[in-house]
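Hey, can you fold this one?
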Amino acid sequence: MGYDAPDNTPWGEGGFDAREVLDEDAATEGGELLADDLDGLRASADDRSHLTLIGHSYGSTTAGHAAHDQPVDVDDIVFLGSPGVGGDTDHADELHVDDGHVWTGLNSRDIVGQLGNHGSVHGETFGEGLW
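Sure. Predicted structure:
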């Protein structure tokens, strides 16, 4: 939908863009596009369907920006393997969904998800539960 997520590969559109995950600029821009797409989904529906926003890895940071910065009309939000929701979000209630409708999933061996747990890269990120 117009969003070029950092893909960590040297081929394809944009070339080697893994360095973009070091900041949230792409997630912020992608969050704006995602919010527009979700608004379009809501507008095109005849009835109120249950809409769940799911973000994985850096995409969860993008989803977090969409929910926090643009308040999107979704029923649930799921973050999987998330390095962090992004921006100024400190609590689930800042994502503009009802209480109990923000979900997370983490594989104990997922280094990216450990960033979300600890907030930064350190020895524990690479050692705890990874082997």
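The CA atoms of residues 84 and 90 lie 10 Å apart. Let me know if you want another pass with a different chain boundary.
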